[in-house]
Design brief:
seven-stranded antiparallel sheet, single chain, alpha+beta
Length: 166
Amino acid sequence: MRNVQQRSVNASADRLGALLDGVSTADDRLWPTPSWPPLVLDAGLTTGSRGGHGPIRYSVTEYEPGRRLRFSFDPELGLDGHHELVITAEGADRSRLTHTIVGTTRGRMRILWPLLIRWLHEALMQDLFDNAERAAAGRLSRRPARWSVWVRLLRRVWSARRQDRK
C-alpha cells in the first residue's frame, strides 16, 4: 500500500522546516491537536525514539532536521513499513510538505486500513497541512479542511467507545 498527500505552502522550506523540528514538543504548531490525539515521542526527534498518536505506534528511524522525518511502524500494529514527512523547496518563498505511507498490511489491519484508518489518517493530514500553512505562511490559501461524513461518523463511534470504557 502507498498513500501520498502533499501541499504547497507560500513559505520558505526553512520556515516550514522549523515547524517540522517542533513536532512532539511543547511548542508543536504542526500536529493538529486537540482535534486528534497528540503525537508523543519518548525521546523527542531522535533516532530510536518510540511513541505515536492514539493507537498508532511507531519509532523514529530517520531524521534530517528541517527536511525529513521518517517513522517505522511498530510490528504489533499489523502494518509493515513506514511513514514520513518531507519538505521540498519549490522556490525562495514556496515549499512543499509531503506525507507518504509505504507498507504492507497484515492481520486485522488488512480490513482496518481500507475501511477506517485510511480515512481518518487523510483527514488528520489535511488538518496538519492547514496548521503548516497557517503557521508558516500566516494564512490558508484555500478553505480549511473539512471532515467527510464518514470521518465524522468514525470519530463519533470512536469517542463513544472510549466513553464506554471509562
